[in-house]
């Protein structure tokens, strides 16, 4: 075995988690190396060609506010942008973008290759070098040793990956790509408990064989709202998506062939995503439902491939063809790439700290689907945080841990390391108890200061944010002070909107608090002297309309923090605590919570057990003083 160059940080895997981890570490001054099995599939959109969506869009905005790359690359490669949930409250508005698959990975690869202090190598990683209780480097498939102060593992679905198409199976980390076998064994040797998960993907269809006249077109927003706070305008050509539905013939083709399904023949052992089931699972579980939506998504500007979202399956190819041809608009459709299911190993995330560092192997971090997540956005979020914390630890600087009231990323990580998961974890707005504080529109106000303080957000980007912040605060103060007088024109406009006329002077703030009134109305009758961009205007309107609710959530979060932030001393002896059941004690020992708040969120930990723990911790702390 030959000894190669030493690095500060080594990142294993160049998916969405790996790219963010490597860029973050390098930007924070670490000599970093990113290992991938194939340089041509860096940042591959392995499943659907889209970024964002409900709650996931929040994650992308947060990644951007902290200085990550996903939002920037999405804006460069996006071919449709839509803000979802606009009919509901602003807490659940979320941006989704269709991306050109080739452009996305090209732009991300360029970001990696142009980053100072970052090397990218094509080689498999077969073994971790662990000495004592710390990782020291890796050994590659070519027999080369690379030493490192920290290693971040972001292997996606490649650990012992096994693809299923009908009753045929073959080892792969992604369709027709080699799996990672040695690294999975190395993790077990290092003492990690591991499980098995399953995910899948639908067939890709040739657009030239689709009759779009039988489908419903869905267009993006015009003008498009970008993901990144630094993007001024989306310049790519924009394309529509198309909606169609399954029917009785589709469902019959599936039910007639369930015996050929690896899922129902029990050939697949891994647990699949509850909220993104295969079409055969949907048809069986929801037998009373007459149809299921199929969302046809373009894969890019320069390809005929369309992604048939909604009919993910592991049935044989001949059955897949019957399913596709039974759907309106797809009667003559030709499958270019078959659907498949994939099983893979993952590490139970309760073995990680909130920094995503292993509790037992120092310097070893894990991010992405190896933590039990599903989705590009969850993976990128975890990769960014792992890369940041690996660099901060090496620099001997304070770690970055985001609280549940600060970011969806904080909710994501806390859920994983505290509650664990036995199925692919997917982010939803319902998982966040402070979602009115964690809105899509205010990610920069919540997190950009943190991104700047650690060194990821550039001075230029932060200056733009400070200018926006000043504009928002100045305009809010103006709306609180300026009063408008009743006039025939104003009252007629109010009546037209379905709201009452004003009989006397009223502040612009009170006027804007009315449900029927938007900032555009205020701008028309009392324009500001300063130019206010649409993003700032939305923030101003939301802050004023929901001021009372936002303040209540802030107060609730502050009250909870006083108890939740109480630290549990490292190595706390739970066996010495009277009044705890054996089950509660076992869970506390397994998770090793770092705070009372984290302990309270462990499944099965009762309020009574939390109260006992709090008393015991305070007693121990007093005895040490």
Would you summarize the structure shown here?
With 625 residues, this protein is of the alpha+beta class.
Summed over residues and divided by their number, the pLDDT gives a mean of 94
Q: Helical region count?
A: 20
* Main β sheet profile: 8 strands, mixed
* Proportion of residues in β-strands: 15-25%
- CATH topology heading of the largest domain: FAD/NAD(P)-binding domain
**CATH H-level homologous superfamily name of the largest domain:** FAD/NAD(P)-binding domain
Q: Distance between termini?
A: 52 Å
**How many β-strand runs?**
23
Any guess at the CATH architecture of the largest domain? 3-Layer(bba) Sandwich
Radius of gyration using CA atoms only: 26 Å
CATH uppermost class of the largest domain: Alpha Beta
Helicity, in percent?
25-40%
Q: What gross morphology would you assign? A: globular
């Amino acid at each position: 075995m030959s000894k190669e160059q030493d690095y500060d940080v080594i990142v294993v895997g160049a998916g969405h988690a790996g790219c963010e981890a490597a860029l973050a570490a390098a930007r924070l001054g670490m000599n970093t190396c990113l290992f991938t099995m194939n340089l041509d599939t860096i940042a591959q959109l392995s499943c659907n060609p889209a970024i964002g969506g409900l709650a996931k869009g929040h994650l992308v905005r947060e990644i951007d506010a902290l200085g990550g790359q996903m939002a920037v690359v999405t804006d460069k490669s996006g071919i449709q942008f839509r803000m979802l949930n606009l009919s509901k409250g602003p807490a659940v508005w979320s941006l989704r973008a269709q991306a050109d698959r080739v452009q996305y990975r090209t732009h991300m690869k360029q970001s990696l290759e142009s980053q100072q202090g970052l090397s990218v190598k094509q080689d498999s990683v077969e073994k971790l070098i662990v000495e004592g209780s710390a990782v020291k480097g890796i050994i590659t498939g070519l027999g080369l040793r690379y030493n490192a102060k920290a290693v971040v593992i972001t292997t996606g679905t490649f650990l012992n990956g096994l693809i299923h198409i009908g009753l045929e199976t073959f080892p792969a980390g992604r369709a027709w790509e080699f799996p990672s076998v040695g690294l999975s064994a190395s993790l077990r040797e290092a003492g990690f408990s591991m499980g098995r998960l399953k995910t899948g993907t639908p067939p890709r269809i040739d657009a030239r064989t689709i009759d779009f006249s039988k489908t419903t077109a869905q267009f993006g927003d015009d003008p498009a709202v970008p993901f990144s706070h630094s993007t001024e305008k989306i310049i790519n050509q924009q394309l529509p998506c198309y909606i169609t539905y399954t029917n009785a013939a589709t469902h019959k083709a599936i039910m007639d062939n369930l015996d050929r399904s690896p899922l129902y023949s029990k050939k697949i052992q891994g647990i699949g995503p509850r909220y993104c089931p295969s079409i055969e699972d949907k048809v069986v579980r929801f037998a009373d439902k007459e149809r299921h939506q199929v969302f046809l998504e373009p894969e890019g500007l320069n390809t005929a491939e369309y992604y048939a979202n909604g009919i993910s399956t592991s049935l044989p190819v001949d059955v897949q063809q019957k399913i596709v041809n039974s759907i309106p608009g797809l009667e003559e459709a030709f499958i270019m790439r078959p659907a498949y299911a994939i099983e893979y190993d993952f590490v139970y995330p309760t073995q990680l700290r909130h920094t995503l560092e292993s509790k037992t192997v120092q310097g070893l971090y894990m991010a992405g689907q190896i933590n039990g997540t599903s989705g590009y956005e969850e993976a990128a979020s975890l990769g960014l945080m792992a890369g940041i914390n690996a660099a901060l630890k090496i620099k001997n600087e304070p770690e970055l841990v985001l609280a549940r009231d600060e970011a969806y990323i904080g909710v994501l990580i806390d859920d994983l390391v505290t509650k664990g998961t036995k199925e692919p974890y997917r982010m939803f707005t319902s998982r966040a108890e402070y979602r009115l504080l964690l809105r899509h529109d205010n990610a920069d106000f919540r997190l950009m200061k943190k991104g700047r303080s650690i060194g990821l957000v550039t001075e230029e980007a932060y200056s733009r944010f400070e200018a926006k912040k000043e504009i928002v605060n100045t305009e809010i103060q103006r709306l609180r002070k300026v009063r408008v007088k009743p006039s025939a024109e104003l009252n007629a406009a109010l009546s037209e909107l379905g709201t009452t006329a004003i009989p006397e002077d009223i502040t612009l703030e009170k006027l804007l608090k009315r449900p029927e009134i938007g900032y555009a109305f205020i701008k028309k009758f009392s324009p500001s002297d300063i130019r206010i961009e649409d993003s700032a205007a939305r923030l101003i309107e939301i802050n004023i309309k929901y001021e009372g609710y936002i303040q209540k959530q802030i107060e609730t979060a502050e009250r909870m923090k006083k108890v939740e932030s109480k630290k549990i001393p490292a190595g706390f002896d739970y066996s010495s605590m009277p009044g705890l059941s054996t089950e509660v004690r076992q869970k506390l020992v397994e998770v090793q919570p770092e705070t009372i708040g984290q302990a309270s969120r462990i499944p099965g930990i009762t309020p009574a057990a939390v109260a006992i723990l709090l008393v015991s911790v305070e007693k121990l702390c007093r005895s040490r003083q």
